[in-house]
Structure formats: structure tokens, C-alpha cells
Write a structure and sequence with these properties.
mainly alpha, single chain, SDHAF3/Sdh7, Succinate dehydrogenase assembly factor 3, mitochondrion
Length: 159
């Protein structure tokens, strides 16, 4: 059993890295950037604004990066995101656009975040909380606000 594990481990570590296969799926930065902004057209207006702003800021921040490992990681992760948005909105296969539903983040993702990144995710969660309410939630919130105003008016004696 031990010899099998050693042989399996050595074959994995000695296998050549196939950058050609990896880069075949990657897009150059500018076409990827354009494709990302184009894919956001299928999103609701608020999500599109947030997504476009974030993409633009991230690409600006990494413009001067020279490390090839960082560049490949950056491009590959954005390509994964692009494929996911295209798949969820139906744009990859040329079908009509479907509403974007998103997906929950798994716990492994959160475990890999630095403290600063976790803080940014927390701030993003609070900044977007009120944007994505259903019409029923918005109506209930409006009714609560109206009742609150009426209660305040009664306390102060206003009609």
C-alpha cells in the first residue's frame, strides 16, 4: 500500500505543468474585460452597476502586475466568474437571457479569506442588504415606516 501511495504521489509531482492547456482557456486581459462587462448586461440594473464598478476597479488595480503567477491566477478566476455568469444568464449558449439568481458561498471560501477580505465581504453584505428585497419585503417595510410616522405624529399631537 505504501509503495502505491509513493508511486502515485511521485507521478503527480513529476507530471509537467500544462500551461498551454490552462492558457487555452484563458482570455487575454482586454477581451476578458470586455466580455465581463458585456455579460453584466443580463443582470438587473443595480447588480450590473456593482459588477461593472468592481470589474473596472480590479482590472485597474492589477494593471501594473508583472508576476506571471498572479496574472494567470487573476485571469483564470475572472474567466471562471465569466463562465458562471454566462451559464446562469443563458448568454453562453445564445439562449434568451434568464434572470440571474446567484449562488450561496461555501464555507471553504470563507476559510481561505484573510481578515481584511472577510471584513470587505461583511461590508459588502451590509451595503447590498437593502438593494435585494422582494416586492413583498419592500411593501412590508413601507407599511412599517408609515405606521412609525403615524405613531410619531400621535405622540407629538400632529394630525
Amino acid at each position: 500500500m505504501l509503495a502505491t501511495l509513493v508511486r502515485s504521489a511521485s507521478s503527480v509531482s513529476q507530471a509537467p505543468l500544462k500551461l498551454k492547456d490552462a492558457s487555452a482557456q484563458l482570455l487575454p486581459p482586454i477581451p476578458l474585460y470586455r466580455a465581463l462587462l458585456r455579460s453584466h448586461r443580463a443582470l438587473p440594473e443595480e447588480m450590473r452597476y456593482i459588477g461593472d464598478s468592481y470589474v473596472k476597479a480590479e482590472f485597474r488595480r492589477t494593471r501594473g502586475t508583472d508576476n506571471p503567477i498572479h496574472i494567470i491566477g487573476f485571469l483564470s478566476q475572472w474567466k471562471v466568474y465569466l463562465d458562471e455568469v454566462r451559464g446562469q444568464t443563458g448568454r453562453a449558449s445564445g439562449k434568451g437571457a434568464r434572470p440571474f439568481s446567484g449562488r450561496p458561498l461555501n464555507t471553504e471560501f470563507f476559510e481561505k479569506l484573510s481578515d481584511e477580505q472577510a471584513g470587505q465581504m461583511y461590508e459588502l453584505m451590509h451595503a447590498t442588504r437593502d438593494i435585494w428585497k422582494t416586492p413583498d419585503e419592500l411593501e412590508a417595510q413601507a407599511v412599517q415606516q408609515e405606521e412609525g410616522v403615524a405613531t410619531e405624529d400621535r405622540k407629538t399631537g400632529k394630525e
